[in-house]
Automatic annotation (TrEMBL), chains A, B:
Keywords: DNA-binding, Transcription, Transcription regulation. Residues 22-157 form the HTH marR-type domain. The lineage of its organism: Bacteria, Pseudomonadati, Pseudomonadota, Alphaproteobacteria, Rhodobacterales. Pfam families: MarR_2 (PF12802). Coiled coil: none annotated. This is MarR family transcriptional regulator. It comes from Thalassovita mangrovi. SUPFAM superfamilies: Winged helix' DNA-binding domain (SSF46785). PANTHER family: TRANSCRIPTIONAL REGULATOR, MARR, TRANSCRIPTIONAL REPRESSOR OF EMRAB OPERON. It comes from the Bacteria. One of its GO terms (molecular function) is DNA-binding transcription factor activity. InterPro entries: HTH_MarR-typ, WH-like_DNA-bd_sf, WH_DNA-bd_sf.
DNA sequence: GCCTTTTATCTTGACGTCAAGGTATTTCAA
DNA sequence: TTGAAATACCTTGACGTCAAGATAAAAGGC
């Protein structure tokens, strides 16, 4: 009898006409996502970051040398709007973690590049982040994690058709 | 090869020292949660609500007659801070969906009650919401949904120790 | 060469959230 | 009885987000 079960029991009593089966599943995904998010934010915060700024720096870092992408590419990877990305980049630039370089070939275009400070910070942060993810997933065995990943991949494929 | 796989492949190339196994799992939970959240928001929006306002009205509705709880009880159920709840209640009150009643017994306390309009709205909305949840979960068979729910419950139990 | 359309990014305004703190009230131990 | 602590709710200020639209530049049809 967890939090989600209590919610389902209330609905069952008040609206016995409803077919509640998927509600528990969706509720658990949402709550688990919230707990995992909080668990990850702690590591980000220890490095002066949050999920938003980590997301940008990590995307640049894993893109490989020269650790530079355009705002549009970053928007594609992180799935946020242009206004959100402008705001994120403004803050990261103010902290000296990225730098905006105007393109020579296209005056509309900007390249966002990790500074040395940004590179060092994200490299240290992601190392801790990965270790933290291991801790967060430890409640399940490797077999269970693999089975869960299989089911989530199948579900996710309906929203994000795989390519290649 | 989905979006998460592409991220993992980039990390693998750039940081082969990292043990990336749990990263895919956590990434898929996050992305799936985002897609499901968007899918649910559409139904809320069709009734002039969003996830936040739906959450409050649904909590009041499923609490049973007289469909009234204090802000503190609502905070416990919805897991938001007091400032957030005040803001939510202000907006719902302005729309005439809830009403605040000062307590006779404790002058600090307030009872938040569904109005007739609020009751009618949330009852209609939750009916559609449940049908929508079925659609969103349709990508998995009933067996798969049950297995997924089992694994998520186990994982979630580490964050929210079950009671009773 | 021009004019429309598309592309790339930034700006604005509204909203939801939280942390920290404020105010009023109640509780409880001395 | 009274004064400190706890409780219940609200206020404030900062932040992250989005939708809509602004600006500027490039591309393409004629």
């Amino acid at each position: 009898m967890d939090h989600v079960d209590r919610i389902l029991a209330q609905w069952q009593a008040e609206r016995p006409d409803l077919q509640l089966r998927p509600m528990g599943l969706l509720g658990r995904i949402k709550r688990l996502g919230a707990h995992l998010g909080q668990g990850m934010e702690r590591v980000f915060a220890a490095h002066g970051l949050n999920a938003a700024s980590f997301d940008v720096l990590a995307t640049l870092r894993r893109s490989g040398a020269p650790y530079a992408l355009t705002p549009s590419q970053l928007m594609d990877w992180t799935m946020v709007t242009s206004g959100t990305m402008t705001n994120r980049l403004d803050r990261l630039e103010a902290k000296g973690l990225i730098r905006r370089v105007r393109s020579d070939r296209d005056a509309r275009s900007v390249t966002v590049q990790l500074t040395d400070e940004g590179f060092a910070l994200i490299d240290a942060c992601v190392t801790e982040h990965v270790a933290n993810q291991h801790r967060l997933a430890d409640a399940l065995s490797e077999t269970e994690q693999a089975e869960l990943d299989r089911l989530l991949s199948k579900w996710l494929a309906g929203f994000e058709p795989p390519e290649d």
